[in-house]
Amino acid sequence: MMDVANGYAILRAAYCDVELWFRFGEVVNDTIGLLKTNAIKDRGMREAAEQYVKTLVSILPRDTALWNQEDSVLWDHVWSAYKAFADKLSSRFALNHYGQITDKDVEKYMDIKQFIPNYDSVCNLRRIQSEESNNYLKRMLYETSSFDKECLFTIEIAHQNRHEEPHPAIPLLEHLMMKGKFSRYLHEMWRTWRVLKQVAESPSRDGMILNLEYNQMRYRCLNTILKQIVKNPTRTSMQSMTSVSWRPTTI
Predict the structure, then answer these.
(1) Rounded to whole angstroms, how far apart are CA atoms 14 and 6?
(2) pLDDT tens per residue, range 30-45
(3) What does pTM read for this prediction?
(4) What DSSP line would sit under 153-215, residue for residue?
(5) Most buried of 57, 214, 240, 251 (most Cβ within 10 A)?
(6) Where on the phi/psi map is residue 231: left (φ > 0), alpha (ψ -120 to 50), or beta?
C-alpha cells in the first residue's frame, strides 16, 4: 500500500512541477529529477516511475526564452508520460490483486447506513444549514461511543456553516485523525479536512498551505490503516485498504 501512496505522490508531484513551467515559466527539470523513486519497492513500478521522471526532465525546456503557455505539442508529450505511468499504477494495484473483492463488497462495507440508519435525513441537513442542524449533529457526535460514528458526524458538521473561515470542524477532524484509531472513513475525513484547510488558507489553487502539511496528515491516516491490516489481515481489512484512494484531492 505504501507503493500505491508513493507512486501517486510522485505522479502528481512531478505533474504539479510541470504546471509551474507552463503557468509561470519556472525551470523545474532539476526539481523533478530530485523525486525519490526508490521509495517504491515494487521493481516494475519503480522502473515506471523512473521512466516517467526521466521523460519529463528530458522534454521540458531549461531556457526561459522558450516558455510558451500554449505549447500544445509539449503538453501532449507531458500528458502521454503522465497517462502511461498512471495507467501502470492503476493496473498494478487494481482491486483484483487483493483477493476476490467486488465493487459491491466495497460499497456494502462503506455503507454509512449500517452506522447511521437515518443517514438520508442527516445528509439533508447540509441543505438546511441552520444552527439547529449544527447543534443536533454536535449532540450526536458527543453522545456516540462508536469511532466510526464520530468520524461520520464530524464530517457532517464540516458541511455546516460553510462560509465560516477557518471552519470550526478543522480541529475536530484533526483530533480524530491524530488519535491513530482505525475507521473505514479515515480517508473521507482527510479529504474533508484538506478542503477546509485549503479554503481557510486561500480558495485559489495557489493557496499558501504546503503539500507537505496535506501529505503528513495523509500518511498518518495511511499508517493507521496499515497497522489495522497488519493486526487483522482479513477480508474486511483488505476491503478497507482497497476502498481508500490516495490520489490527491482537487478543489
Answers:
(1) 12
(2) 999 999 999 999 999 9
(3) 0.73
(4) HHHHHHTSSTT-SS-THHHHHHHHHHTT---TTHHHHHHHHHHHHHHHH-SSTT-SS-HHHHH
(5) 240
(6) alpha
